[in-house]
Amino acid sequence: MPDHADIYLICGATGAGKTTHAEALALEVSGLRFSIDEWMQRLHNPDKPETDLFEWFYPRVERNWAQMRSVAERLVELNIPAIFDCGLTRKSEREMFDFMEALWEQPDAREMASLNGVRIPA
Q1: Is the pLDDT of residue 1 over 60?
Q2: pLDDT tens-place string over residues 33-80
Q3: Looking at the 3D structure of the chain, how many domains does it have?
């Protein structure tokens, strides 16, 4: 058994199937899925204002991302995979995961076969 778990980032446009894929992956690897949509809905939407949504929205998204990352780092120490179901539409959101570049691994043959050999550019 490895001494650490993996962190998965499932990113894409709205409606691309991120949540469906992330839910299946969480079951497959016995991991915990983090969904920014679910966190925002549960923690903040009941209090959202009717105006100035943009100014209200993004500070909360960024605080949620920071907390999710903190929890995920602890999960990895406990050898529990973390799966992020996210859009990462803003540069500040993507920068929170810059540390992963050093951990990135080339897909193996099985993973490439599941993608029919198609590589998705960064």
Answers
A1: no
A2: 999 889 989 999 888 888 878 888 888 888 888 899 899 989 988 999
A3: 1
DSSP letters of 15-31?
A: TSSHHHHHHHHHHHHT-
pTM of the model: 0.68
**Domain assignment present for 120:** no
Domain hosting 27: range is 7-113
Does residue 1 lie in a domain region?
no
Write the DSSP string, the chain.
Answer: --SS--EEEEE-STTSSHHHHHHHHHHHHT-EEEEHHHHHHHHTGGG--SS-HHHHHHHHHHHHHHHHHHHHHHHHHTT--EEEEE---SHHHHHTTGGGGGG-----HHHHHHTTTPPPP-
Give the bridge partners for 84, in sequence order: 9, 34
- 55 assigned to some structural domain: yes
